[in-house]
Every structure is written in structure tokens, then in C-alpha cells.
Amino acid sequence: ERIIFLRDYAPPHYSIEKVDLEALFKQDSVRIRVLLTVVPAPDTPPGTPLILDGNELVLRSIAIDGLPLALTAYEATPDRLVIHEPPNRRFALETEVFLDPEKNTRLMGLYRSNGVWCTQCEPEGFRRITYYLDRPDVLARFTVTMRADQALAPVLLANGNLIESGEESDGMHYAIWEDPHPKPAYLFAMVAGDLGRITDSFTTSSGRKVDLAIYCSHGKEDQCRYAMDALKRSMAWDERRFGREYDLDIFNIVAVSDFNFGAMENKGLNIFNDKLVFARPETATDADYDNVERVIAHEYFHNWTGNRITCRDWFQLCLKEGLTVYRDQEFTSDERSRAVKRIQDVRTLRSAQFPEDGGPLAHPARPDQYREINNFYTATVYEKGAEIVRMLATLLGEDRFRKGMDLYFERHDGDATTIEAFLKSFEDANDVDLADFGRWYTQAGTPAVSVSENYDESSGTYQLTISQKTDPTPGQPDKVPMVMPIRFGLVGPNGGDMAWQSVAGGRVEGDLIVLEGDSATLSFTGLGAKPVASLFRGFSAPVRLTSARPEADLLFLARHDADPFNRWQALQDVAMGLMLADLAGRPWVDQQITPLAAALADTAQSDTLDDAFKALALTLPALNEVARSKGQDVDPAAIEATRERLITDIVSRIGPDLEALYHAKASTAPFSPDATQAGQRALRNAALALLVKGGAPVGPGLASAQYHAAQNMTDRLAALSAAVSRWTADAPGLLGDFRTMFTGDPLVFDKWLTLNALPTHDETLDRIKAILSDPDFPRNNPNRLRALVGAFAMNNLVQFARPDGLGFRFVCDFVSDVDQRNPQVAARVLTGFRIWRNLEPSRRAAAEAALRDLAEKGGLSRNTADILTRTLQ
Ligand code: B3K
Ligand code: ZN
């Protein structure tokens, strides 16, 4: 099995200056003719073979400079095309292949979704369209000519600007698209089909008028309005915040129903999973609206961080992804509530990235080897990658960070570059040394940080000892300390931050401690009272704090910390502490639960906090988070029981407050997805969720009434989820009702599928199997499969990790079946097993047996085999 190493990187022997691609779309096949202008690199020895990538291709004809090639001059297999002795000068290579997009169930390359031809090329899909140097450091100018029956495909789209179009004989028509910006093949895109659209325009700050359009299946146009609004706000924000303008006359987005990922930033022609475009109040929740806005922004921001400046090789994926996630997080923070956004992002990081970083699939944000690059579009590359950029911004401060970004854009526009070059821009712009900081990109694992303190009353000295340690990860047994920005405050008895006279023992810059070694002991003088330290404000570094703190200190911070993130965190910590102690055989007592319940009630009633924040405060740590904190010998059923009991005990104390809050937050205003209204809904629904999960007698009735009266999907789904979470008496009936209410809307069907996958009781598995075995179930649509089985494997640990092993068996059977058609979906679902070694012994054994059987069966794709091998290692 071939492993690709970063250290083996070598620049290509040939570059491709220009690509002239001609696509002829016929009902049953697509003909692709390509003319490549190839240039040997200056130091390429004459006679060096030209090796082009392919995947499942059949070569129909080949010529160089117009002359057909002799059979002995080349070798063509489905996977590559070798020209043995190409001319030692610029030459034109012409090839022709025929594709069968209908049969392309992998959804990479050119495929068909709802009759529409579309493409997905990142990372290695272009080689499924034509033989090519399919690597991101080969940048070429593309001209694309598309031809199709006007009735079959009235819409013909590709990257760049439309330079010509017209009708031909026999009802055919054509369009010629030219992209003036050289680009790697992974940013290539084409769409042909019968689509509806909405249009708008945006004028950039230098006066360029850009025509905007969003294409979708007919009848869904109205559902694209919010996405269009988000696009225009994204364009304006990137100018304001980063000085980045759009660079073409056209920006098109196409929504398709079959898509392996969320969306794709193809130059001037973004292609989206339609669930991240469509939004209307009756079928989309506030969370869906947020996701549409976030991903529209993310793909748009790639135009500069990804497209204008791209990656030299796929090891650098985080260069564009981590940075672009950071940018979309900042966009949302500026548009909405910064504190709320931060809390949401940290919850995502903890539930998706921490388990990855602490398990068998752990890898650095910049990996140094891979077998299958598709398996590295991970939470580590994306979310931890964004945390690294955020730490850089924290360490440098806003102005110096912007100076570094400006230099990066100026220096590398048009380049395919590296993480090193990115960091160098910040070093050179600010005259700083980031060598040690750079280890965040190369070392895997979540640092565990412990803290101890000592206050000497007589001298007014407060000592804080902070230590870090990172556990070994696969391939990295020995770890070095990280450079860690710790934003902090010393909170005094009156709740305000205290000033200190002097500090010694480490690097402290204003409200920032920079931990550089294994450990530091900081002595603060001039403190008239013992402070309560508020550390990692705003979650200033992606670490796990492992030392338990006195509940009294945490509850104090929950009420007084000037940093909203740490106010939220303190409540989470108290709840987590109680659950972990309970799981260790030390159940909580009255004196612990009463103050926590009171703090939650007071937070919910505060006049100064906004509703969205309060909603998050009322949301206790998820089961997956508790499992991660527990670390070893995880019994998910026991965690679920503890969690439910904690909520029950809280609700038994503050149920009436929650009920009052629930009624106070009712609203009759017409739906708007704005942050204020969404926050109000979130708070009301958080109260409802607690009441139902906590067994309040009023809970089921409120949920049922809300479900039936709901005027929007946010409220309807929240009510239904609450009922399902405790499996109330009417949960099955409500679920059935929901199934029929929106038949024909696949995105609502997905919500129903997920609700069926999440109940923690034992009938869940049979229910899922029954749904899957329905002959009408869309077995090839990634959204449907992920909504049902992905949700089960990732978010229903209780049933996935059933003690009888049937959950594991089911997921393995599913993976082995889907792998035949769509390896990416199969491999992704299989990553649910990454927690297996942390389970208690009997579940661990059951998981291992299921995995070993899957391995034994063989015949797996490279994607799935890679995940399986690493999971078992
Ligand atoms: N760059 C694409 C990812 C495509 C992944 C293909 N396996 C989406 C994004 O991150 O914006
Ligand atoms: Zn991205």
C-alpha cells in the first residue's frame, strides 16, 4: 500500500500553461476533448516521461501538436497516461475520453444529480474527467467549451467569465467560459442541466459590478434568498475586514442534492450541497440558517485564501482550510454575537476534534504522510487549524495580525504555497520569531493543562503554576511543549478584575500569559485579597484543563467573570465535575446540586446576558464530551443515566423558573432568522429541553403542544427532539406525524431520519434497519445516509456501543455495503469507531471483533481500508 510523504515533495517536471477543454453532453455519455499546452520545467532533462494522472478513464485518441501518437510512444491505463519521450519544448497534447456520469456513484469527477451534470474535483477528481497533472502546484489558464441539447441542459456553467454562447443546429447550444486566473485542477467546475435561478449583483469597493446568481432545481428559487443575502454580506465583509475584493465579473453558486461534502469553492462557480443553500422558515431551523450563512461565507472567502493563494501540496490543506474557517468564524462573530459564536465553536471542537486528537486517527493539523488524502478533510485540519490561526491573532494582536495577512496576500498572490510561507509572512511583517509556535501545525494531540495556585496573605502574593503535557499520538511518542496564549484575569472578591503590582516567573503581556515551556510559576504581587483566576478567557488555546477546581470558585466565576465565555465554561465545569464524580462512585449531594441549579436559574433570568448566551448556559455538556473527559473505561449507558439524573435533579429544583421562562419567551412575531429572534427561540427551547429531559410533569404536554402549534421548523423540531430525547409517551406518534407532514422535502426527511437514529433505547437499531431496508430508501444520497447512519455512529454512543455489539456490527455491515458505491461516505461513517479503545472492556472487545471481521472480509476501498487500519493500530 503506497504511502505519500511530505518529505518526498518535488516540483513537477512539466507545467501546464493552458487547458482548452471541450465537453459534449449527451444523454448517455459525455465526450471530453482536452488540449493541454505543456511546458517542460527549465531543469527537466530531455526525454523525461510525462506522467499524467487518471482514474477509471479510457483513452479514445491522443495527438501531440496535431499528429496522432504512435502506440509505442505512450502507455494509457485507467489510472495514468505516460508519454515516454515528450518534446523538449512547449507542445500541445490532445486527448479524448468518454465519461458515463450516470454511473459515477462516488460523486467525484463528473456525475449526475437529479439529472443535472456537475463536478467535484477537490482533491483528486479532475483525473476522473481527463488525464492531467492533477496536483495543486500545477496552475493553468482554463477555457471551457460546453455543448448540449438545449432542452436537456439549457444552463451551461463553468469557471470564470462567459465569453461566448449561442445556438447550433439540431437544438444544440454551446457556451464558452474563460477563467483568466491560473488555477489548479481541483478548482475546476462545470454544471449542465435544467435549473432555476435567482440573480442579484454586488459592486466592489473599486467599482467592479459583479453579477451574482444562485442556481437550483425549479421551484426552489425562493429558498435561495437567504443564501444570496449571506453572499453579499460576505463580499462586503471581506473588503472591510481583510481588504479583499472579488476578481471576476460573475459569481455563480449551484445547489445540488447529491454531494459528498458541504460545498466547494471552485473559482467563480461554487457548488453546494443544497442543504447549505436552501432556507425557509417552515423547513429550516435557526441552526440551518446559521449553517447556510457560514458555509456561503466560507466558500466565498476561499476566493482569496485557497484560490488566489493555493496549496503547494495536499499536506498544506490546513493552509487554506484552517485559515478560511478562522475567517468565517470571524465573519459570524462580527455579524452576530461574538461570545455565542465562540461557545458554539468550542463545543464543536470538543465534540468533534478532541475525540479525533485523542484517538487512533490523531494527526497533526499539517500531516506529514497519508495513504488517502480524502481522509484528511478532518476536524483537526479545519477546526484545530482555525484555532491555530486564532492563537496567532491573539499572540500578535489585531493590528500585527492584519499586517501579516496583508504581507501574505501581497507576497503569495498567484502562488501554490506552504504553512512555512504563511508563518514567515507574519514573522517578516512584525519582526517576530514563530519557529516554536509553528509546532502547533506539526504536533498532534490536545495538550492537557493543569493549574495550581497559592495565595500568601501576609505578602499579598498570588502564585499560579501552569503546566502542560501532551499524550503520545500515533507516530509521535514524544511531545514537546506548545507556545500557548492564555488570556486571563484575576477576579477579585467584588467580581471585578484585580490589578497587580508586579509579576515574575514567566511571560505576561497585559492580560496574556504566554506559556512557552512545560511549566511556569507566576508570582503576582500587590494583591490585597485572594483572587479567583479566570484562565483561557475566550478559550484562547485549544487545550484540555485537567485540574478540578473548587465548585465555589467556579460558581463565583459563573456569576462575575468579565469574560462571557468563562462564565459559560464555569457552569459547564461544575456540571461536568458532578457527573465525573458520580461515574466514579461519588454521587452528588444536595449542597452541590442546589447552588448549581440556582446559578443556572439566575443566569437564565439575568438582565444583562443575551438570550442566545443563556440558552447555551442551560445546555449541559453533551454525552460525547463527558465520555472524552472520562477518558478510559467509558460506559455510555452509565453516562447517559448520570446525565439524565443530573438534569432531573436540577429540574426538580428550578422547574417552575424554567416553566415561567418558557412562557415568557413565547412570541407571535412573524419569523425572522435574525440573532435576537433566534436567541429568544433558543432560550425557550433550551428551557423546554430541560423540562422534558428532566422529567418535569409539564414537559411532555408542553412539547406536544409546541410541536402542533409551531409556526416554524425551529420550534417544531425542538419540541419533537425534546420528546424524542426522553421518549415520552407521545414521541412515537409525533415522529409519525412529522414523517408525513413534509413528504417530498428531502431535507426535512433528513431531520426525521436523524431523530430516528438518536433515541438511546434498545429499539433504535431495529427502527434504523427497517428504514434502510425500505426499497424506496435513496441508498446513494450522502445526505440521507449521513442523517441516518452517520448520526447513529457519531451521536448515539449509547446504542452504537450497545454491550451486545449489535450497533458496531450494524455500522460495519453498512460501511462494507456503501463502500462499494461511495467510499468517502463509508470511510467517514467508519470514523465513529475512533472511541473504541476508550470504552469499558466488554464493549471494547465487541468493537474490536466487529472491526476485525470487517478487515477480514477484505475488498475495501483505499479510503475505508485506511481508516480501518489506523483505527485498529
Ligand atoms: N474545499 C472543500 C472540500 C472538498 C472536500 C473533498 N473531499 C470544501 C471546503 O472546505 O470549503
Ligand atoms: Zn474550506
TrEMBL record:
The keyword Secreted does not apply. Keywords: Aminopeptidase, Hydrolase, Metal-binding, Metalloprotease, Protease, Zinc. Residues 11-187 form the Aminopeptidase N-like N-terminal domain. Gene3D superfamilies: 2.60.40.1840, 3.30.2010.30, Neutral Protease Domain 2, Peptidase M1, alanyl aminopeptidase, C-terminal domain, tricorn interacting facor f3 domain. Residues 552-873 form the Peptidase M1 alanyl aminopeptidase C-terminal domain. It is an enzyme of class 3 (hydrolase). One of its GO terms (biological process) is proteolysis. It catalyses: Release of an N-terminal amino acid, Xaa-|-Yaa- from a peptide, amide or arylamide. Xaa is preferably Ala, but may be most amino acids including Pro (slow action). When a terminal hydrophobic residue is followed by a prolyl residue, the two may be released as an intact Xaa-Pro dipeptide. Its EC number is 3.4.11.2. Residues 445-546 form the Peptidase M1 alanyl aminopeptidase Ig-like fold domain. Its cofactor is Zn(2+). Residues 226-437 form the Peptidase M1 membrane alanine aminopeptidase domain. One of its GO terms (molecular function) is zinc ion binding. NCBIfam families: pepN_proteo. Belongs to the peptidase M1 family. This is Aminopeptidase N. The lineage of its organism: Bacteria, Pseudomonadati, Pseudomonadota, Alphaproteobacteria, Hyphomicrobiales.
